[in-house]
Amino acid sequence: MSDIKTYDFVDCIFVDMNVGRLLSTLYVIVEAYYPIIPNGPRRKKGLIKVTCNQIIAMNLKKIEEFDVDILRHDDMKANEIYSITCEKSATRGLDVILNSDFLQFELTCNNMEVLEID
């Protein structure tokens, strides 16, 4: 598991999202630049899977810009991701916020995992 703050989402794509059938788990797959390795090669871009477990509250909002981009046949821009943040909640669990051209979601969950897929 890695800290989401070490990833960069510049020019990256929102790939997929799935909510578990009991509405207790959210899975999101996005492109991201992996954390910088000291004295390593250039920063690698790949896919990460973000899993939010034991969801307490969730608010999803579709962004109007998504429809505009789709009507312009600009699929890449329509699926851009801007950020994923995770902070300790003031009351309980973690507050996770994802911002993209497609949607914005804010949720509170008990834990979050980040897995590099490739």
Overall structural class, as computed from helix and strand content, comes to mainly beta
Radius of gyration: 15 Å
Q: Give me the side-by-side strand order of the main sheet.
A: 1-2-3-6-5-4
Mean pLDDT: 89
- Proportion of residues in β-strands: over 45%
Q: Descriptors for this entry?
A:
55% strand; 10% helix; mainly beta; 6 strands; 118 residues; six-stranded antiparallel barrel
Describe the structure concisely for a colleague.
The protein is mainly beta. It contains two helices and six strands, in the order E-E-E-H-H-E-E-E. It has one domain.
Can you walk me through this structure?
With 118 residues, this protein is mainly β. The protein has one domain. It contains 2 helices and 6 strands; from the N terminus they run E-E-E-H-H-E-E-E. It has a 6-stranded antiparallel beta barrel. A hairpin with a 5-residue loop joins strand 4 and strand 5. The longest helix is centred in the middle third of the chain and has 8 residues. The radius of gyration is 15 Å and the shape is globular. The two termini are 14 Å apart. The model has no long low-confidence stretch (mean pLDDT 89).
